[in-house]
Structure formats: structure tokens, C-alpha cells
Amino acid sequence: MLETFRLAPLTTRFYSADLLTTSVTLPPAPGPDGGAHPEDGRYTVAMKLGDIPQFVQQVRAETAKVVWPTSRETMMTALMVIIMTAMLGIFFFGIDSLFKAIVHTLLTLAR
To answer: What is the pTM of this model?
Structure first.
């Protein structure tokens, strides 16, 4: 069963020079007796500032695994976006003109 939690705003505090802590408040989870325990709703994620170089190294390693599009694929995608945008612009211009004509006709008949 999937459960949905509405997250409270993240709170970031520096407790010491080498520790960054972010706290997230979640709704209290029901305990074994079915009642809610408020202490269960607080989770803290801590990362030592010394681990930042390792984190950056991991990000670079994951970025290296990304299959980047070729320049041809990028150009073809951009061209398709431009063509579809133009087609939708023309379509909505036509629909708008049609509704304008209908409203104008109805207002002329109402006189």
C-alpha cells in the first residue's frame, strides 16, 4: 500500500563547524498499539562537511554514466520543438479567430 506524506519545509541548521543537519517533519507514524507517537515523525539527515569531496566525486561518476545526445539529435529535437510550437500557434490563432467571429455575429444579431 502506498502512503502519501506532505512534507513540512526543510530546516537547515549548522550545529558545529563540521556537521550540517537537515530536519524533515513527517506525520507521526502509528505505533504498535495503533496510536500515533510524535517522536516517530522527526527524521534527521546529517552529513559531515568532510564528506563533501566524496559526494562531488560520486556526482561526477554518475554524470559520466549519462548518455548525452549528439549535436544532430539536439538540433533535430530543437527543430521539432520549433515546428510544433509554430503549428500550435497557428491552430490556436484559427480557433481564436473562429470564436471571435462567432461572438461578433451573435453580438450583431442581438442589436
So the answer is: 0.46
